[in-house]
User: Fold this.
Amino acid sequence: MTLGLASMTEASWTKRALADLEEILVDHAHCEKKAASTALSLVFKYMEHSHFLPVLSALAREELRHFEQVLQHLAARDIPFRRQKPSPYAGRLMEACRKDEPDRLLDVLIVCSLIEARSLERMGILRDAVDDPELSRFYGNLLASEARHRAAYLDLARSVFPSEVVAHRHGELARHEARVIAEAPPWPRMHC
Assistant:
C-alpha cells in the first residue's frame, strides 16, 4: 500500500482532471470546506477525548486556509465558486463505518486518513501534470499539509486503539476505498 492506499490513481483520472481544471478547482474548494467541517464535527462528537481537540482544531483552521487559497485561485482565473454535484466518494466510504462506538470512532478516523491520503496522491499528480506554474506550485505546497493531516488522523486512532487493531481495520477500509475509487463515476472531481 502506498500512502496507506490499496490502489493508485489511474492515468484516466489525470486526463479528466486536466481536461476540466475549472471543475477540479471548484471541487477542490468544496473538499477543503468539507474537510474543515469534518474536523470540527469530530471536536463536537468526541470532546471527551480532550487530546483530540487541539489537533482537530488546528487541522480545521488549516483546511479553512486551504479553502481560502483555492478561492483565490478561482478568483484569479475568473471561475465562480458554485454548487456542484458532490462526488459519491466520501459518502460511500462512510457507509463502511460501523455504527456502534467505539468502533465507529476508529472507522471514521481511518476514513479521514484515507481521504487525506487520496487527496495527497492526487495533488501530487496535479503538481506534476498542470501546465500552469502557479497552480503547480500551489499543489506542491499543499503536499506537506495533506501528509500531516493523514498522519494526524492515524495518530489519533492509535492514541485510543491498539496499533494492531488500527492496522487491521486500516487494511480493510483501504481495500474498500480502492473499490470505491474504481467504481466512481468518471467526473472531473478530486475523488472520482
Q: What stands out?
A: Residues 11-183 form a domain with the Ferritin fold (CATH 1.20.1260.10). DSSP finds seven helices and no strands in the chain.
